[in-house]
Amino acid sequence: MTASDPTAFTSQLRNLRQTRRFSDRAVPDDVLNELLEVARWSGSSKNTQPWHFIVVTNSELRKQIAEAGPFAGFLESAPVVIVLVMAGSNPRSEPYDEGRVSERLMLAADAHGLGAGTGWFAPDDGGERRVKELLGVPDGMVIRSALGVGYPDATDPRPRGVSGGRKPLSEIVSRERYGG
Fold first, then answer.
1. Is the pTM value of this prediction over 0.85?
2. How far apart, in whole angstroms, are the C-alpha atoms of residue 129 and residue 137?
3. What are the boundaries of each domain within the chain?
4. For domain 29-151, which architecture applies?
5. Could you read off the pLDDT of 109-160 as tens digits, one per residue?
């Protein structure tokens, strides 16, 4: 992909989907390290780099993480779970930074033929506290999400690639003024 062929990149962006079913095939360490390098170089507010990544491959620990939140169950089937731990020092910018680095990890995974999906933990249902306990994360740090990473399960019935269900631009874009 080069600047002279932006179509390849925009096609990748349009085709990127959450993966929630994974095969048992292991993710090679060199590929995993490449994903983590991409995450390391992701931009953040004021270049604070407010993240720490915990890579979990132990099946029992993945199962416990998956049980910690109502939107995390699929993480059990992912051969790799990357838990995003945020510094907790800037509640205004860190959710933005977390979303940005999460999307970068998903794009890097896709570029390597892997799938990735985001599982969520909420502080009010005890999920965040449980994951922090499991992984020894200090108080004050924040865990909202984790990415399951692996090769997609070919039997996943959900459509891959560009699918319907997207609003047309005319419904979501205005020029110069809202509704204009």
1. yes
2. 9
3. 29-151
4. 3-Layer(aba) Sandwich (3.40)
5. 999 999 999 999 987 889 999 999 999 999 999 999 999 999 999 776 656 5
